[in-house]
Structure prediction request, 461 residues.
Amino acid sequence: MRRVLLWVAVLIGGLTGLAMLALQALGMSPTSLYANIAVGTGISAKLACSGRYLSGFDEAQIRDDLASYSPATDWLSITLDDAEGRATAELLGFSRTSATFRQGLGCTLDKAVPGQDTAGLLDRLNPPAPPAVDKQILWPQGTRVPEPNERLAAVLAQSMALDAQQDLHTRALVLVQGGQIVAEAYAPGITSDTPLMGWSQGKSLTSLMLGWLQMRGQMSVAEQQLFPLWANDARSQISIENLLQMSSGLDFAEVYAPGSDATRMLFMDPVASALPMQSKLEHAPGSHFYYSSGTTNLLTLLFSQRVGGPQNAINHLYQDILWPLGMRHTTLEPDASGIFIGSSNIYASARDWARLGQVFLRQGELNGVRIASASYMQALIQPNTSANGPAYGYQVWLNRGGKELRWPDLPADAYAFTGNRGQVVMIIPSLDTVMVRLGWSANYYPRNQRFAEWLRATNTG
Prediction:
C-alpha cells in the first residue's frame, strides 16, 4: 500500500508540474492559479455573450477578440446557447463561467449575490420598449443621414485601410461637423447600427447620468457623506466631484492582471461596487489623481440609489437620457445585483457614440431636450485640483490642463471619452466637431495622428 501511495504521489506531482508548466506557457502565474482561471473564464463568457447577442458576432470573431487578451483562449471551451441567450467558457475542466443575455439589459455574469435570488432579480427587471423611429428625420434625432462629403469619406476610408494594414482592427469611423454626420466608414460585417463595446467610454455616459441627477436636484457634485459604510472615517469627506474627477484618494488598483482589483471587480465579483466600497483611503480627497474604474461604479450605485433602485434606474436611463438623444442602439449592462457597470460595460453603435459626443458638445442639450445643465457641462471639462494629473474632468480626458497637450496636433480645447482597445470619441468645441473610432486594437491606437489627418482634410486642422 505504501508503494501504491508513493506512485500516486509521484503521478500527482508530475501532473501538477505539467499543469504549472502549461500555465506558464499560457502566460499565467502558477502562484495565482485560481484568479488566472476565474478571470479567464469570466472575461471570456462575458465578452462572448455580449459579442454574440448584442453585436451579432459569430464564434470565430469572438475568439479573435478574446485572443487579443490572452493566448489561454486557445484552450478555452466556449459554448453559445442561442436558445437560452447564454455563453459559457470553460478552461481545461478547472473552471466554468457563464453569462446570460436579457433583452434591454445585455449580458451579465451568472454570479450569485449573497442573500439574493440573483437570476430572479434580473429576470424581474423590465426594460421599457423603445419608441418608434421616424426614418425621415435627420440624425441625430432620427436615422436619416445626408449624402456624405465624398472627399472626407475618402479620407476615412483611407484611415480604415491604413488601420487594416497595421493590424489595428478598426471597425467604425464617424466624423460629425456642424451637427451632422459628414463621413463614416465601417469594416466588413459592421453597420451603422451595430452595437460595439466601448469599455471605459462608458464612464462618460455615467458622468452625463450624474449631470441629469444634479439638474433634477437629486444630488450635488459638492455632496459628501455618500455611503453609510464611510460615515465614521475619513472617506466621509469624499465628494461626488472627487469620484467624477478620479481624485477620491481610494486605494483601488487599476491594474489588469488576474486577481487585481479591476479584474476581480469586472470578472469575478457579482457586485461591481463592492470592492471599491471597501477600499481604504490612501490620499486626501481631491489631492491625488488616480484613474479608477472602481470609483465610476460607485457613481452608478449612487445613481440607482437616488432614483429608487434598479428598475427606476433602467427606466430613467432609457426614457429620459438615451432615447431623447436618439440613442436606440445602446445598452448599459448591469451586474448581478442589477446596478449598471458604468465603468466599462456599454455597447453602442458608432452613430450612438457620436450622438453622445454631440450632447457633450452642445452643453447638455440635444434634439430640443436638456439632459444636464450647461453649468454642469462646463464644470465637466475643467481640470481637477490634483497635483499630479489635473488634465482630467468629470470622467473625460482633457487635452489641456497638464504641462503639455495630451494630443499636441489637436486644438487645446479637445477632450475625449476613451476605452480599452483604442475606443475614442473626440470632441472639439472650437471646431464644432465630434470624431469617433471604434475597434479592437491590441496595440495603442494613434488617436492624435489619425484625427489630425481628418482635421487637415476638413481645412480646419
Notes: Residues 2-102 form one domain. Confidence is low (pLDDT under 50) at residues 1-28.
